[in-house]
Amino acid sequence: MSAQFFPLLTIAVLVACGVFLLLERSLTRMLLGVLLISNAVNLLIIHGAGRAGNPPVQDSSAGKETAADPLAQAMVLTAIVITMGVAAFILALTYRSFRLTTADRVGDDPEATRVSQLSDEEAIAAEDDDGGTVDPTELDAVVESTESGEPS
């Protein structure tokens, strides 16, 4: 029983540390949290696959009677590739945040705070007033204008 308990305890500690890091305001710590959780899930998949066995691509080899499960190995390899993509995306967000604000900490969003303090009636009224249109000056992209005042 203790042989099965310690890998699960390790996975639980990795997940707990990952969640703790995800709750931080620093994007770098959020990235580390995502990586820890991803590694914990990979370990859980490998642990759930069962005991090691013969390689599944060979007919037979000396030592073990059963073949290893190739599905768990394929899932972990796919998860590693997906994690690399997510990590690259978070790094791009961190770089953009640092270029805009010279800090990698996520600040409070004043609009989200304002909306969370609205009552239900005010939220419905504000939703009806919006109409779904967006003012171009509110967009993140910088719009260069010509002399006539038209956007280019």
Structure description:
Residues 119-132 have a biased composition (Acidic residues). This is Na(+)/H(+) antiporter subunit C. The mean pLDDT is 79. The protein has a domain at 4-53 and 68-105: Helix Hairpins (Orthogonal Bundle), CATH 1.10.287. The chain is built from five helices and no strands. It is an all-alpha fold and 152 residues long.
How much of the sequence lies in strands comes to under 5%
End-to-end distance: 69 Å
In the CATH hierarchy, the architecture of the domain at 4-53 and 68-105 is Orthogonal Bundle
Indicate the percent of residues in helices.
Answer: 55-70%
Number of helices: 5
Give the overall silhouette: elongated
What name is given to the CATH topology of the domain at 4-53 and 68-105?
Answer: Helix Hairpins
Cα-based radius of gyration, to the nearest Å:
25 Å
- Low-pLDDT residue intervals, each spanning 5 or more residues: none
Classified by CATH, the class of the domain at 4-53 and 68-105 is Mainly Alpha
Class by SSE composition: mainly alpha
- Topology order in helix (H) and strand (E) letters: HHHHH
Output mean pLDDT.
Answer: 79
- Mind summarizing the main beta sheet? none
- Strand runs, count: 0
